[in-house]
Structures are given as structure tokens and as C-alpha cells.
Structure of Bifunctional NAD(P)H-hydrate repair enzyme:
Amino acid sequence: MQKIDFRTRHALFNVAATRAMEQAAQAALPAHTLMARAGLAVAQLALALAPHARRIWIACGPGNNGGDGLEAAMHLQRWGKQPVLTWLGSADTAPADAAASYQRALQAGVTFSQTPPDAFDLCIDALLGIGSQVREPDGRMADWIRLINASKQAVLAVDLPTGLHADTGAVTQLSVKATHTLSLLTLKPGLFTAHGRDAAGSVWLADLGVDQLTALAQQPLAPTAWLAGAPPAAERPHASHKGSYGDIAVVGGAPGMTGAALLAASAALHAGAGRVFVGLLDGGTLSVDTSQPELMFRPVEALELSAMTVVCGCGGGDAICAQLPRILSAAAAVVIDADAINVIANDTKLQTLLTERSQRGAATVLTPHPLEAARLLGTSAAQVQADRLAACGQLAERYHCTVVLKGSGTLMAAPGQTSVINPTGNARLATAGTGDVLAGLIGARLAGGLDAFEAACQAVYQHGLAADRWPPGRALTAGALSRLLLH
Ligand SMILES: NC(=O)C1=CN([C@@H]2O[C@H](COP(=O)(O)OP(=O)(O)OC[C@H]3O[C@@H](n4cnc5c(N)ncnc54)[C@H](OP(=O)(O)O)[C@@H]3O)[C@@H](O)[C@H]2O)[C@@H](O)CC1
Ligand SMILES: [K+]
């Protein structure tokens, strides 16, 4: 069993892949082995999380997720705890594994109850796991979910918090909010994107020993996605110069929105780009930023885009429209954000220029938030959020480029790549200008020589990490964030 930390990357598997792995493991192991291991792992983690807990409420559903709870109850009873088990199943209707664990719990003397205990020190949510249908829980299950969420005690979810969809991170209206989740056999993508992070709390993995099975070692399943790990430390050789880290042109900052372009430029600068030019679309009011004299202001037309990484859109307003044909045709590499995305969503000619970039091998990164992604896909933000991995993958295929779908559990997709979910960042990033900072940071990584997908993954991780390390008592502003990015 391991607690998932965000420094190393982890493979994620959807329900179909997890089921395939489960079947291969079950074929190679004696009956009931997986559930026995799962229940033991749940009980061990419960004990580790709440060593002094006396009464433990185990809420069990009708399927095998409930079976894991029954199995855990047996161990906790034997270890001198007072598990109280409420079960929505029955010996006649339960699947074989859960029925076997029911007998074992009975024999161990576990207390079964029709109603939850009045007080408890820990709750184990074993209502629904990967077999859950995306339908609203009702009746006793709904009552129990409300009680679990109203309790002040730790909540350990078995495999998934009940109501969380394993593949997408979508939740039913009524769903369990866990403090800890022990994912079984595999880590699922839904734990880390959309509502997953809020629902799951800290995530643990019990692989149930299947990595030692020869059948699976010989034919490992391809991950559905990766949870990103920390990028390797960037080394700057002594014999390098500003040309080694590339030129960036930030094109944006229409009247009244100059700040967005300056934030992106500041981020590019502080993230280590060699030289940063700014082409403002405000009619030329600014020729120097005295707080950042390193930035070089130029008319957009004077920028030699073919040798540059262009970060465009930040505060670009409608004015970015006139610049996009040249940027998309000429820029060596490009990050397309905000207003530039909205303009492209409404212009098929620009969409053609965008997709043609991949034929020339020109790096392109699109950075939509869910509403911008919806505009590009011709759908709604709710539909994008309902399956973020699918939406991000569709955008990457449609526009032949790397796509960063922002939001909790930001995603990166690109044609031919397994998608990546970013684990860093927090709600403090939900403030004006942080998207501009991210665009500038991605630009710096592109200018430094990374390919588009890697540049996006590394930048998103570092952007989130900077927010995670932000001093608790200090307001997070985009300007300060742009100055605190790692090289
Ligand atoms: N994979 C592995 O290797 C291992 C898996 N293991 C464990 O098995 C779990 C998967 O078990 P599972 O397949 O029995 O599904 P599970 O999540 O218990 O739910 C199915 C039941 O719930 C019901 N139901 C569904 N939605 C509902 C709703 N909204 N409201 C009310 N009821 C609802 C559904 O009823 P139905 O929809 O069929 O009417 C059915 O009865 C997995 O997550 C892990 O914990 C480990 O033991 C060992 C290794
Ligand atoms: K559960």
C-alpha cells in the first residue's frame, strides 16, 4: 500500500482496463484472494488513519465494494475494534465474493445493524465502487451518504468515494466527500480531475499484489492516462547564453487589457526565457515597463516571428484577430490562449491555419478553460466537464496540436500521446491573470527547447506547484506568481 505523492508519475486505468486486470488476476489466483487482500488493506489503512478509533461505521453497498467493507469489518473486529456494519445487500443477492465475506464477518462476530450508529470515530464508505452506475443514489443509500458527509470524523472511501465516476471525475448530486480514498488494484483517472480531488481527499493505492503476477507482467495493459510527476531539474550549462533559451514574443494586451500581456511576459521572463518581446495591441502607448525593464516592446509587425515562440491571446480582445493569420502561419512555436482561442473557434480559415502547423512540425499549444474548450468543440462547458479526458483528446485530434484543458486536474493531450493529468495546484489559482502566467510559462519551456507536449506538462506542473507552495497567509496574485516560477 502506498500514499500517492505527486513527485513521481503514476499510471491511471479506467474501469474497462481495471476490469481486464481484475479478470487476469482472478484467473491466476485462488478464489476470493483479491477481495481478501482488498479488505485487509482497507482495515490496515483504517487502523493507520485512526489508531485510537473505537466504533467504526462501515456503510456497505450491494455489490463487491460492499464486500470489501464486509471483509475489512472482519479484521477490525478481530483487532479489538467495534465495527458496526450497515449493509444494503443480502446473502441471497450478493455477488459470490461479497457473500463469502459476509459469512466471514458473521463468523467473526461483527455487529450488523439496520441503522448507522449514533456516534462513531471513523466511517468507511463501501457503498459503491467501480460498478456504480451514474444514477442518483436514493433511499437508505442516500440517507447514509448525507450522514457520512455531515459527520466530522474521517471518512475512508473504498476504491472510490461513492458517487464519483472512476473514468471522468464526474459526481452524482449526492456523493461522498471522503478524507481518504484507498484505490484498489489501479489508480483511476476520475480521482484526479473534475470533482475527483475534492471528493477523494488524500489517495492511497493497494495494488493487491497483481504487479507480481506473471500474466500481467508479460502483457501489461496500456495506461488510460498518466498522473504527472515532477519534471526533471533543469540544468543550465555554464557555456550557455541568452540565445540558448530562446526568444518569446507575447502578442496581446488590447486597450484596457495590457496587464494580461505583461503578466504572460513576466512569467516567460522569470521562467528563464532568453529574451522576451512584447507586441501590444493597444495602439503603442507603452514602450517600457519600468518594473520589468528586461521586456522589450515592439510593434507586432516588427517582430520576426519565424524565429520566435509566440504567446498570443492574453488580453488580445478582438484585435488579436488581425494578427492570427500571420502568427499561425509564421511562428516557430505558439501558445494560443484566451481571446485567441475564442477568435479561432469562430473562424474556419484560422482553424485550417492552426491544423496545418502540425504538417510543418511547428509546435502548437492550445490552453482553453472548459468554456473555451466547449466553443472549440461546438458543445457546452457542462459536456466538456462531464468527460474532460475525452474532450481534451478530441480537441487534440481535431486541431492536431497539444491541448491543455484547464480546471481542477488540468489535462494535457496531444495526437499519439497518452494523456496526462496534472496533480499540482489548488483553488487559489482561481484568480485573474493566472492563466496568462501559465501561457507565458509554457512559452518559456517551448523556447527552451522542449517539445509542445512536454513543455505543457512541465509548465502546468510547475505553475500548480508554485501555488501549492504559496505562503498560507499571503494573497496569491498573478503578478507575484509570475515572479516566483521555477527555472
Ligand atoms: N476490480 C478489482 O479487481 C477488485 C474489485 N473489488 C471491489 O469490487 C468493486 C466493484 O464491485 P461491483 O462490480 O460489484 O460494483 P459496486 O461498485 O460494488 O456496485 C455495484 C452494485 O451497486 C448497485 N448500484 C450501482 N449504482 C447504484 C446507485 N446509484 N444506487 C444504488 N445502487 C447502485 C448495482 O446495482 P445495479 O445497478 O446492478 O442494479 C450493484 O448491485 C470495486 O470497486 C472494489 O471495491 C475488490 O474486492 C477486489 C478487486
Ligand atoms: K466506496
